[in-house]
Structure formats: C-alpha cells, structure tokens
Write a structure and sequence with these properties.
This protein is an all-beta fold. About 0% of the residues lie in helices and about 40% in strands. The N and C termini lie far apart (about 65 Å).
Length: about 160
Amino acid sequence: MSASTTKKAVIHRFEKEPVAGHVNPVSYLQPAGVELLSTQGNATTVPYMDIKSISFVRDFDGQDEPARRVFFTRPKMEGLWVRFEFRDGEVMEGIMTNNLLQVEHYGFTVIPPDPSSNNQRIFVPRAALRSVAVLGVIGSPLKRRKPKPVPKEQIGLFEE
C-alpha cells in the first residue's frame, strides 16, 4: 500500500464481524485476497472466500446503519441493473457499468440502490455469490430516440 490515496472501506464477512479500514483503490484486489489497512494500523489480506461484500463508505460512523438492498422502482441511472444472490441466500441489487471491459476479474463493483446512504459503492467478490442476473439495461445506446422530422407543409410563423 505505497500510494497515498486510500478509500474508506468496510469489509463485511460471512458469519464474522465487519472490518473497517482503508484500501488502495488501484491495488487492493490481490490474487490471495483484499489488502486492507485497518483503523488500528494493521495491514492484512482478507481471503475472497471470507468476504461477503466491501462497502466503500463516506465515514466509518454510519457503518451499522441498515442499507436498502433492492430498488423499489426501475432505476434511472445508466448501466446494467443487476441482482446478486449470495451463498447465504441474501439478495442485493445494484447498478453496474455497461462497459464489460471495466468488470474486475475477482468480482463486481456496483452502485447501491440508496444514493443517500453511507455506502457509495459496493464490491462483491465472485466467491461470495450463488448467482448474478441482469434485470435490465438502463440507457441503452440501441434505443436512442431519433428526433421527429419537421413536416414539409409546416409553415414558419417567425421565419423571414
């Protein structure tokens, strides 16, 4: 963790207490697990099999608040609307980038349903999932509407 730019993150683990700390957004995903510098100053690597999700948070004080896990209506933000089913049966939805070149090898990064919550982004490792389903494509470039052509017989009132 040599870079000076780090992000606040909370690692939620299966059947264990969450771990809060800082991660380097460029290099936190390692082959053995996630590199985390805890709030006590200990550098650890948490294996992917132990991680349920990693929440990138605004501050550590609001980490115990219950966050909304699904959308109530169709989201407005562009991207892939996805639903994750975890190994323990829990379900979570989010918006993922529509550019598949930006999908990480070790998991998926999504924007959670509640934009006003403490969680800004959530990383879900592939090892934590039972299934991933795409519920919709929001803002698809294939469905761009063309402007209506102006009829030829339309007169211009204010044209010279």
